[in-house]
Specification:
By secondary structure, the protein is mainly α. The protein is built from ten helices and no strands. It has a domain of 137 residues: Orthogonal Bundle (Tetracycline Repressor, domain 2), CATH 1.10.357.10. Helices cover 74% and strands 0% of the residues. Helix 2 packs across helix 7. The N terminus is likely disordered. Pfam families: TetR_C_20, TetR_N. This is TetR-family transcriptional regulator. GO terms for molecular function: DNA-binding transcription factor activity; transcription cis-regulatory region binding.
Length: 206
């Protein structure tokens, strides 16, 4: 009952400057705890203490640990996107640029495997109640891919290719984190699926 009530009481968007600062403290605390011990290390009471907010306040922002960790992933992707904009990927084709971008994202997650595992597990466990946060992660990933493609107005076929690439990237993260795929295998899979972009681009020579 506590979590249902908390969900109904979540702060409306847009947040005030003070609320946004509090939210960012919570997300930073979540990431720190996940970096130290993964999914199990992120306990709501410890997040509240680390971010210096009341436990009830934390639940108003994030009704559960799953909500919190999925939002943490969106926040991490947002920071990555800002970095990529400062140093765009190289590559003669959109497929090459997207593959480089996703591998840079993968290597950033690789540097913090406990955090990566916690966020991916949260995505895997997410049910319909977490749909808004999951949608934010998907939109952020799409924006990163479209920026690498250099397409502000992609065709329906290109958007379909982007969705397949997103699915493959997330699947590659899961198989790597579970020890069922090497980094080299992930790279091959990413490069292979990114070729869909060139296949759906009418300006790319066949």
């Amino acid at each position: 009952m506590e979590k249902v009530e908390a969900a109904a009481a979540r702060p409306a968007s847009p947040l005030t400057e003070r609320q946004e600062a509090r939210r960012r403290r919570i997300l930073r605390a979540s990431a720190r705890l996940a970096c130290r011990g993964g999914f199990d290390a992120v306990q709501m009471r410890e997040v509240a203490e680390s971010s210096q907010v009341a436990l009830g306040t934390l639940y108003r922002y994030f009704p559960s640990k799953i909500h919190l960790l999925v939002a943490t992933m969106q926040d991490q992707l947002e920071h990555l996107h800002a970095t990529l904009r400062k140093r765009p990927p190289a590559g003669d084709t959109a497929a090459e640029r997207v593959a480089e971008t996703l591998m840079r994202a993968f290597r950033a997650l690789q540097r913090e495997p406990h955090l990566a595992d916690a966020m991916v597990r949260a995505l895997t466990f997410a049910d319909r109640s977490v749909s808004p946060e999951v949608d934010q992660v998907s939109r952020q990933t799409t924006a990163i891919i479209l920026d690498a493609m250099g397409r502000e107005h992609p065709t329906p076929a290109q958007l379909s290719a982007v969705r397949v690439i997103e699915h493959t990237w997330h699947s590659a993260l899961i198989t790597w984190l579970s020890g069922r795929a090497s980094i080299a295998q992930v790279k091959v899979d990413i490069e292979t699926v990114c070729r869909l972009i060139d296949l759906t681009d009418p300006e790319t020579p066949r």
